[in-house]
Amino acid sequence: MKVILAEKPSVARTIASVVGASTRKDGYFEGNDYQVTWAIGHLVGLSMPKAYGYEKWSLNHLPIIPQPFKLEIIEDPSIKKQFKVIESLFKNCKEIIVATDAGREGELIYRYIHLLAIPAENVTIKRLWISDLTDNTIRKGLEQLRPIAEFDLLYHAARARSEADWLVGINFTQGYTLASGKGKPLSIGRVQTATLRLIVDRYSEHTSFQSTAFFIPKITLEDPNKPFVLSCEEKYKDRASAELLLNDLKDSMSAPIESTNKVSREKAPLLYDLTTLQRTANKVYKYTAKQTLDTAQALYERHKLVTYPRTDSQYLTVIQKPEIIKTFEKMDTISIREITTDSLKETCIKGVTDNPVFNNGKVTDHHAIIPTGKTGRLDDLSEVEKNLYLMIVQRFYQSFLPDCEKTTRRLQTIIGEQFFNTSSKQTLKIGWRVLSPEGEPEAMLPTLQPKECRTILETVIHEGMTKPKPIYTESSLLGSMETAGQFVQDKSLREGLKERGLGTPATRAAIIETLIKREYIIRAKGKLLPTEIGAGLINSIKELSVCSPELTGDWEFKLKQVERGDLAYEEFMSEIRSYVNITFPKLLESAQMVKELQTSEEKERDFSFGSCPKCSGGEIRKGKKSAYCTNWNADPKCNFTIWLSSFGKKLTDTQVSNLIHKRETSKLKGFKSKAGKPFSAQLVLDSEFKVKLLFQKK
């Protein structure tokens, strides 16, 4: 019997249908000499400190440096049950086919399961390495299985990354939290903290920016059709200097104009990788990075309409050329911006021959995101799925259409020693822009003879103000995470970040969501803003490399060396252990700076509604679920309580305050009966200080 291990149930179901394992069992499919089972993501992970005897957080035993690390099954009954299924299948089979995601983390998922499940000694283990879940690709992949040993170095790199992140995340989070005196954990991690720093630094730079005026001299010249304006290339810091330049024109009624025409080609855009897809979806539809990732995953797993989405490549391999032609031939006719894709098919197929999108050196684990060619009804997709799928299809066609050819006309003159110029563009051949028009065409500037003079009709000085770099949106943050090497001085570290950036395409959405969940940042009108505690954390550890892209650059550079076999796993881990031991005491010192800052929970806990109406001696404080009297544990006790959610409605602070001090609210909407029906009523405080509903008579 052959056992195939997929990463998720949905993938297992797809593979099972291809290999003929049609009988559903408890935790796997069986049939045709195959058993197809699944992990549930990271089913096995590194053990927490409790497994090493450290149940409570304490500075006395930090930092914790396990040697060796222990593994444990995730604490969840359904996960433990599934592990037992995998373990049983592994011990009773002749061959294991690893079909977890083709990449560093997918490899780690299998290897950790393998270490705990311990397959039979004589079992053969092979790797399925594919980039989409169409039936043909799965069949072809099963015909070209690779020995698992080919991926040992990939596993060593994945294991090193996992253990290094544990050492930094566990020790730095516990140490910093304890030293800061906060009851709520203040999480620190290599990637999330460096990402938080980008947000904090940009926000600080934006809010502290001092805007200054600049002045641009402009001249308007006559033309029979429409006067045109030339602008000075230099921006002046003061109006007087700009006026001085224009004063030279007082005796000049005309200016000699030099005209040039240049034809240029605008290359077709590359295919989408996950990050560019997330950035575009955020700009066009305001979708969050997580929303785009989840939707792309659904298009891949459930609908089989696109290839593997968690990719960092915008290219395809040369061997895929025949496959791409077949994909165009299979594609359903779709209308994009009132253009039917059928009308573009022949041109796109011709564009396959010498297209720069085919580049073996630019494809690592997975190629770019493209349609699979599978037919399907768009009406079966949700609105978000449909929008994202059409974006991927649009980019697929664009990438194989010809370049867009444009002519640029530039008019220029010299006044004093300064150049004044303007330009206009006109499309000659629309090419790939047929699916992405740029709006209204520009009015073309006049055709002039060499050094032709034109009368100066007017001179003006345009005044503008300098602007700061904008606060991060998800789109711009994803761009900075991807190109984090720009923030790094060291060339070799910059190269490490060039390949990976901060996080991976698959993890960047989760990093943003984690920062929001931990209340380090908030989303506000499409912007990402740091909270007080988020900014305080970064400002306190700014001098430590844990919040700098350099650390990730260093790690990724060396992890790539591990992957290639140029650096041993143990050598890398020795450096990480040394780094943690050296940095840990510095981190404890830094934590003193945030002692006075309050987390949102601490602010809420200290919020007071005033004196208690029942006992008069206590204050009414706001807890997580109720407003309560501070004399709840005094002698005598006061049990005054107002639940913040009453009769299915969440109360505002104003409504709670009115109940306490006025003993009633106004008529409120949004209550729900036990049957789930909405109704309106007042809330009142009765003579026993209990909250009751009051229905007004009609």
TrEMBL record:
Residues 151-584 form the Topo IA-type catalytic domain. The keyword Translocase does not apply. One of its GO terms (biological process) is DNA recombination. One of its GO terms (molecular function) is metal ion binding. One of its GO terms (cellular component) is cytoplasmic replication fork. It catalyses: ATP-independent breakage of single-stranded DNA, followed by passage and rejoining. Its EC number is 5.6.2.1. Keywords: DNA-binding, Isomerase, Magnesium, Metal-binding, Topoisomerase. It comes from the Bacteria. Pfam families: Topoisom_bac, Toprim, Toprim_Crpt. Residues 1-133 form the Toprim domain. PANTHER family: DNA TOPOISOMERASE 3-ALPHA, PROKARYOTIC DNA TOPOISOMERASE. Belongs to the type IA topoisomerase family. This is DNA topoisomerase. It comes from Flagellimonas hymeniacidonis.
